[in-house]
């Protein structure tokens, strides 16, 4: 199945085959599949709680403020991103002894990381599209400047986080097994790295999103995020070769931790 997918995909054959393998790993992990249901359900729940009409409310009233699409949409997209990006910081968790294959096959580790990152981006795109549909139904879509700024902010945050997540996955691997809950904890350093990174990106994105309202130029956040997204994407692409070198340096750690 993976071979057939690689032959018909628009991706390079090796990356397509690895992407197909990641898809099969995902559907073998029942807990991961079930967890994909929660973001749209939570978005629906929050929209029901806060998105309805509130007689007598005003902008300074919290329910009324969060009923506005321009506020609700970025907040919910950030929430979905927070939930779904955590697994990227230990992306080799379920490889087990299969990690040896990556060092035996004639491929570069940048291709492995790129395939894993593309799978993560595919999941994020699907989940965010579904959540956006829920928000459009319950709350409505935000204004064009806020929509453009949010989408550019997502590109910036995802690209930047994937760069750091790849480093974390190679530096702090932790073995996990399909279908088990007991003892399935992420590496402490990986969790700390994920928390710190998401905190930093949240601290950067929040003030920029409000900059349009503060300055009166509602397209300013979109322009800033477009520049940051381009820089983050360039940094991600440049980091792949460095991650390949790091993977060779961390080879013994990866084999010992994941292959035992």
Report on this structure.
The chain is mainly alpha-helical and 260 residues long. Helices cover 75% and strands 0% of the residues. The chain contains 12 helices and no strands. The longest helix has 30 residues, at 109-138. The radius of gyration is 20 Å and the shape is globular.
Task: Describe how the helices and strands are arranged.
Blueprint: H1 2-8, H2 13-28, H3 30-35, H4 38-50, H5 62-66, H6 69-84, H7 99-104, H8 109-138, H9 144-171, H10 188-215, H11 220-249, H12 251-259
Helix pairs in contact: 1-2, 2-8, 4-6, 4-8, 6-8, 6-9, 8-11, 9-10, 9-11, 10-11
Low-confidence stretches: 1-8, 53-67
How far apart are the first and last residues' alpha carbons, in Å? 28 Å
Count of beta strands:
0
Order of helices and strands: HHHHHHHHHHHH
Main beta-sheet annotation: none
Highlighted features:
12 helices; mainly alpha; 260 residues
What's the quick description here?
The protein is mainly α and 260 residues long. It is 75% helix and 0% strand. It is built from twelve helices and no strands.
